[in-house]
């Protein structure tokens, strides 16, 4: 396996077609954690939430099949983090406003995607450190979105859920470099950012396109690109 964390992204748009949605749903297994996901999809009220949960499941299914890993190994920790039993293969999923992303590799990792929204300075005042809050006051909603994604990715990497206070570690966003311009992403940029906590220092990879911000955290470096997974790949039968 590649000794760096790799990332995937896909859009849920094509699954707005009811036939494709049902085809995708039928591909998810009917056992264990897969069955729980299928049942939870049917209970979700918002169409966007149903689409994102379905596509996240299909992305994970495709990832495991392409790496010759058994679907039966999927389980969920006591703190709600999915993992593979008895395999040195780690992954993490996130979704927001029509996109689903996944990070995977040979060590634990965390990924988060966020879309820029309205002013969130009140949230920053509660959950961010003083220096992080100062950055939000200076640079606005874009900086808030970056810091929030970085913090979420670190919490997911640690696998401790809400028991890890967001003020217990400090993030330092880096400066973006442009990867591509004028593609389907608009302008795709990336950078390395730093996360300090009492027990370790981590390097996190950030990606930015349009109004979206993605952060990936792990003990290993992350590949400086993000690969798009096609609808055809998500619907593969292996």
TrEMBL record:
TM ranges: none
GO MF annotation list: transferase activity
Span of domain 4'-phosphopantetheinyl transferase: 108-174
One Pfam family recorded for the sequence: AASDHPPT_N
Domain 4'-phosphopantetheinyl transferase N-terminal stretches: 36-103
Family of this protein: Belongs to the P-Pant transferase superfamily. Gsp/Sfp/HetI/AcpT family.
Protein name: 4'-phosphopantetheinyl transferase superfamily protein
Organism listed in the record: Blautia ammoniilytica
């Amino acid at each position: 396996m590649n000794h760096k964390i790799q990332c995937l992204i896909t859009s849920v748009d094509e699954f707005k077609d009811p036939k494709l949605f049902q085809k995708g749903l039928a591909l998810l297994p009917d056992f264990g954690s897969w069955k729980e996901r299928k049942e939870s999809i049917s209970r979700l009220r918002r169409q966007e939430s149903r689409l994102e949960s379905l596509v996240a499941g299909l992305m994970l299914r495709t990832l495991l099949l392409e790496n010759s890993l058994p679907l039966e190994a999927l389980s969920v920790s006591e703190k709600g983090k999915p993992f593979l039993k008895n395999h040195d293969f780690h992954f993490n999923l996130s979704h927001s406003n029509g996109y689903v992303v996944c990070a995977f590799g040979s060590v634990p990792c965390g990924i988060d995607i966020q879309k820029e929204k309205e002013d969130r300075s009140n949230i920053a005042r509660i959950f961010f450190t003083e220096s992080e809050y100062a950055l939000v006051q200076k640079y606005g909603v874009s900086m808030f979105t970056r810091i929030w994604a970085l913090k979420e990715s670190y919490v997911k990497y640690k696998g401790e859920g809400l028991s890890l206070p967001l003020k217990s570690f400090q993030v330092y966003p880096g400066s973006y470099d442009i990867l591509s311009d004028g593609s389907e992403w608009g302008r795709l940029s990336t950078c390395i950012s730093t996360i300090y906590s009492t027990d370790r220092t981590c390097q996190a990879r950030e990606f930015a396109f349009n109004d979206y911000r993605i952060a990936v955290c792990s003990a290993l470096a992350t590949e400086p690109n993000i690969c798009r997974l096609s609808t055809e790949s998500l619907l593969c039968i292996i």
